[in-house]
Design a protein that fits this description.
The chain has about 375 residues and is of the alpha/beta class. The protein is about 25% helix and about 25% strand. The protein has eleven helices and 17 strands. The strands form three sheets. Strands 3, 4, 5, 8, 9, 16 and 17 form a seven-stranded mixed beta sheet that branches. Helix 4 packs across helix 5. It is globular. It starts with 8 loop residues before the first strand and ends with a strand. One of its GO terms (cellular component) is cytosol. GO terms for molecular function: alcohol dehydrogenase (NAD+) activity; S-(hydroxymethyl)glutathione dehydrogenase [NAD(P)+] activity; zinc ion binding. InterPro entries: ADH-like_C, ADH-like_N, ADH_Zn_CS, GroES-like_sf, NAD(P)-bd_dom_sf. This is alcohol dehydrogenase.
Length: about 375
């Protein structure tokens, strides 16, 4: 057991007190883990669009004060009652979803949508007792996605932790706990392009480029990137993208342009923007008979899109993907091994680094649309 096990740990955390206002570095108290919980020391974290979205209070239920952050790496400090899969010193990735191991989804080889631990953006407390593990002078501070990694220490459910190779550099693999794995898995696990396939990627942000990386790893012969921002095209070449199309430059639907470029349509398409029109285009640009379109981007929950049923009857397939169909505890360690074995290049996703004391710079960079992932060093 660690010397701090069972004790409250005072530490620094970047607290969001109000929507859209800079995070404030505060001294918080982090309570010990309860049953089936693990307290971890966060070593590195990065900023994801989901953090930005809820910080701006564009989500369903604004909840403040709150500690954001969900893409991170850390080391186990102590474990709660009933935790047998982790011990002090384990290197881990906290994940915004989870794997309880007991529900129908966890027992299914096809699903990663755990009944108990699937993403819940509205919950600000721990499942065990409905209370927060964070406080300032007795005032509870809300959790975010069950992870809250913008704190030097955090408490998570043991089912939302992946134990990884201790030799993996934590300042690199931290980005694998959300966006990169989401895009990568949407290609490798859901779209499953064959060697020599043509693949279209809609949206060339970090998730879309991770989907392109998956297509490159799978051996796609042509990877067509579609984005409204031409500045992204040069960067995308590093991720295997071979051709670029800007819908703004076209005088007809982009699906028609892609169908003409590819003799009837691409073999696979992955939509990573959440834009309804892009979803329609991604589906309608795949080839009849065998084409598969995968939706990754998250639209407004009330959004609806339309397509002609004949597009489905012509043996096109439309699929959805959640976290790249990776089961967090079972599958994420193998994604880290892909990096360790030099099959997956993570370094090119990390475009900026800032110390924890300057975490608001990461928000500024994302608001300006600069870079892909900004890694935050918790010890600086």
């Amino acid at each position: 057991m660690s010397s701090s096990a069972g004790l409250i740990i005072p530490c620094k955390a970047a607290v969001a007190w109000e929507a859209g206002k800079p995070l404030v570095m505060e001294q918080v108290e982090v309570a010990p883990p309860q049953a089936l919980e693990v307290r971890i020391q966060i070593k590195y974290t990065s900023l994801c669009h989901t953090d930005l979205y809820f910080w701006e209070a564009k989500g369903q239920t604004p909840l403040f004060p709150r500690i954001f952050g969900h893409e991170a790496s850390g080391i186990v400090e102590s474990v709660g009652e009933g935790v047998n899969d982790f011990q002090v010193g384990d290197h881990v990735l906290p994940v915004f979803t989870g794997e309880c191991g007991q529900c129908r989804h966890c027992k299914s080889e096809e699903s990663n949508m755990c009944d108990l631990l699937r993403i819940n953006t509205d919950r600000g407390f721990m499942l065990n007792d409905g209370k927060s593990r964070f406080s300032i002078d007795g005032q509870p501070i809300h959790h975010f996605l069950g992870t809250s990694t913008f704190s030097e220490y955090t408490v998570v459910h043991s089912g939302s932790l992946a134990k990884i190779n201790p030799l993996a550099p934590l300042d690199k693999v931290c980005v694998l706990s959300c966006g990169i794995s989401t895009g990568l898995g949407s290609t490798l696990n859901v779209a499953k392009p064959k060697q020599g396939s043509t693949v279209a990627i809609f949206g060339l942000g970090a998730v879309g480029l991770a989907a392109a990386e998956g297509a490159r790893i799978a051996g796609a012969s042509r990877i067509i990137g579609i984005d409204l921002n031409p500045k992204r095209f040069e960067e995308a070449k590093k991720f295997g993208v071979t051709e670029f199309v800007n819908p703004k430059d076209q005088d007809r639907p982009i699906q028609e342009v892609i169908a003409e470029m590819t003799d009837g349509g691409v073999d696979r398409s992955i939509e990573c923007t959440g834009n309804i029109n892009a979803m329609i285009s991604a589906f309608e640009c795949v080839h009849d008979g065998w084409g598969v379109a995968v939706l990754v981007g998250v639209p407004n929950k009330e959004a609806v899109f339309m397509t002609k049923p004949i597009n489905l009857l012509s043996e096109r397939t439309l699929k959805g993907s959640f976290f790249g169909n990776y089961k967090p505890r079972t599958d994420l360690p193998s994604v880290v091994e892909m990096y360790m074995n030099k099959k997956l290049d993570v370094d090119k996703f990390i475009t900026h680094r800032v110390p924890f004391s300057e975490i608001n710079k990461a928000f500024d960079l994302m608001l300006k649309g600069e870079g892909l992932r900004c890694v935050i060093d918790m010890e600086k």
